[in-house]
Design a protein that fits this description.
The protein has 10 helices and 10 strands. By secondary structure, it is α/β, with parallel strands linked by helices. Strands 2-1-3-8-5-9-7-6 form an 8-stranded mixed sheet, sandwiched between helices. The protein has a two-stranded antiparallel sheet with strand order 4-10.
């Protein structure tokens, strides 16, 4: 089985890299660092290419922060690597993570799963608001689950070759934060699932995205948020 573990890390975040590397090395998990896209260094032309402002103003409660743009593009680069290297899947991690001792076992279970059935995108963490799920498949000590609404956060996930192709067929340009966009999975041509018990969480440190700009400080389009919430529930029900 051909797979890699990618760790997204900004060039200036050397302390985060060291802490993440210590955890992965302790668990004997080889990894490759992926240089994160620094949102603060994006040019106007790059933003105009990647970010669909018309869709954002029509369908989201706020325009993305530069940090969120950089975060999304960092994941896009990982999807491109999966395809370029014809990987069966990749484990995509962000550097503000805390790994459980069973993290290597989860990778082994995903490898086993990949040999028997097709899948797109599997969440390995639910760091923020806890989301309910339904059991899809028991795999030894783990359970593959489906979500009524996928968890936010992208600190740890598995992305298959099939999933990477589908994601890149639809994004960029993007108009939502990546974790919110993944909740609208039918618009991306994928199914987002989870592997529980979760084997990763976020650290207590403030994320680089938060340090660049606070989402809560941005002007909210509350009526748009309400309309999209209703639309999500209706669309999700029709795609079950």
């Amino acid at each position: 089985m051909n797979y890699k573990v990618f760790l997204i890390n900004l060039d200036r975040s050397t302390e985060r890299l060291e802490k993440a590397a210590q955890q992965l090395n302790r668990l004997n998990v080889p990894f490759e660092r992926i240089a994160a896209v620094d949102g603060s260094q994006l040019t106007k032309a790059e933003i105009d290419t990647a970010f669909d402002i018309e869709q954002a103003e029509r369908r989201t409660a706020y325009n993305l922060t530069i940090g969120e743009m950089g975060c999304y593009l960092s994941h896009v680069n990982c999807w491109r690597r999966i395809i370029a290297e014809a990987l069966d899947f990749a484990i995509v991690l962000e550097d503000d993570l805390v790994l459980d001792d069973d993290f290597p076992k989860a990778i082994a279970e995903i490898e086993q799963l990949t040999q028997t059935q097709a899948w797109d995108y599997i969440k390995l963490a639910n760091p923020f608001k806890k989301r309910p799920y339904q059991t899809r498949l028991l795999i030894n000590n783990f359970t593959l689950v489906d979500y009524p609404k996928a968890p936010t956060g992208t600190v740890a996930q598995a992305v298959s070759l099939k999933g990477a192709h589908a994601l890149l067929a639809h994004r960029p340009p993007f108009f939502r934060a990546i974790d919110v966009d993944l909740q609208w999975e039918w618009e991306l041509g994928i199914q987002v699932q989870g592997l529980v018990p979760y084997v990763a969480n976020v650290s207590d440190a403030e994320s680089e995205i938060q340090q660049m700009a606070q989402r809560k400080d941005l002007k909210q389009r509350r009526w748009t948020k309400l309309k999209e919430s209703i639309k999500f529930k209706l669309k999700k029900a029709s795609h079950r």
